């Protein structure tokens, strides 16, 4: 009651499948899984990066190459992804499925390109749905006697709007809904669901999102209203360990830092906490956090309005010419 019992006691000889496994959080989760004795499957769209990732794991952990399976597939391509997942399950039944593949770009909604919109929706949302659709039917067949788990990698943007990142935010909010729904749907099947929202993590995607901001003023405002500080970005190795710890414990929500804890509480909705102790903490902390949240949003509004007025003043002389 006070503390949830472990869902998966050990990852020793378990099979962990990771989409988007050639870099970033996905690669670090794969490494940590190998360190804990798992077999792993990495799915990614770039063959050379995938090969490099597998070689990196073998070299770092001196593990048998037969413990690593790689499958080339783009999660946006249902047929290719389906074939890759089928091959993975034929190799070994999957115990932990991590939907990690994702892309991100920043820009005002009326200014961002259609290609960027399609890439984010197709990869972050449809790619996750495609992965789940194919894999779940296999996982349900054996999960009664073999506890399994899903990991959906969201973001703090699943809980709090990323200013200037409306499309990215939309896809990450959608993942929260999918995770919450699956938490209920899979309850009878002994398949745990973990929704990971690690915040800013030092990965290639974070660099790409920084580089995608073409408007300096947008970058300045976004940095202020999202409290972004690159120097405080989390180490992906630490995030990977935290994710797998949450999976084994059977926790639904995983985040780190005060921001993740606060936002998870404020956006929890009606779904229950992982334990009675957490439920008590939620009840005690909710009112102070609501007050703090109101103050924070007031600050955000002030920053946005100030930026708007400054921008209006800056463009007015040109408009009068």
From TrEMBL:
Q: Which residues form a coiled coil?
A: none
Q: What's any one GO cellular component for it? A: endoplasmic reticulum membrane
Q: Where are the transmembrane segments?
A: 283-306
Write one Pfam family the protein is assigned to: adh_short
Record GO biological process: 3-keto-sphinganine metabolic process; sphingolipid biosynthetic process
Instruction: Spell out the PANTHER family in the cross-references.
Output: 3-DEHYDROSPHINGANINE REDUCTASE, 3-KETODIHYDROSPHINGOSINE REDUCTASE
Q: What is this protein called?
A: 3-dehydrosphinganine reductase
Name the species this protein comes from. Answer: Taxus chinensis
- Please spell out the taxonomic lineage of the organism that makes this protein: Eukaryota, Viridiplantae, Streptophyta, Embryophyta, Tracheophyta
């Amino acid at each position: 009651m006070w503390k949830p019992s472990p869902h998966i006691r050990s990852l020793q000889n378990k099979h962990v499948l990771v989409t988007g496994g050639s870099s970033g959080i996905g690669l670090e989760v794969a490494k940590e899984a190998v360190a804990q004795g798992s077999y792993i499957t990495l799915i990614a769209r770039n063959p050379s990066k995938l090969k490099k990732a597998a070689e990196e794991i073998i070299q770092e952990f001196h593990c048998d190459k037969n413990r690593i399976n790689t499958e080339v597939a783009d999660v946006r391509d249902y047929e290719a992804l389906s074939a890759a997942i089928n091959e993975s399950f034929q190799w070994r039944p999957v115990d932990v499925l991590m939907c990690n593949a994702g892309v991100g770009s920043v820009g005002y909604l009326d200014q961002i390109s259609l290609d960027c919109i399609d890439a984010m929706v197709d990869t972050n949302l449809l790619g996750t749905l495609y992965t789940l659709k194919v894999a779940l039917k296999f996982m349900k067949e054996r999960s009664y006697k073999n506890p399994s788990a899903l990991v959906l990698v969201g973001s703090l943007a699943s809980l709090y709007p990323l200013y200037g990142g409306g499309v990215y935010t939309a896809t990450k909010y959608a993942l929260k809904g999918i995770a919450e729904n699956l938490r209920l749907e899979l309850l009878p099947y002994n398949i745990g669901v973990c929704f990971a929202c690690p915040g800013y993590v030092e990965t290639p995607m974070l660099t790409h999102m920084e580089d995608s901001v073409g408007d300096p003023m947008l970058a300045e405002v976004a940095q202020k209203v999202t409290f972004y500080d690159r120097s405080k970005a989390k180490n992906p190795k630490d995030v990977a360990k935290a994710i797998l710890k949450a999976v084994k414990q059977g926790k639904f929500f995983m985040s780190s830092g005060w921001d993740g804890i606060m936002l998870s509480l404020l956006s929890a909705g009606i779904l229950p906490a992982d334990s009675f102790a957490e439920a008590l903490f939620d009840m005690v902390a909710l009112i102070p956090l609501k007050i703090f949240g109101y103050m924070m949003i007031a600050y955000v509004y002030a920053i946005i309005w100030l930026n708007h007025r400054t921008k209006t003043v800056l463009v007015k002389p040109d408009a009068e010419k």
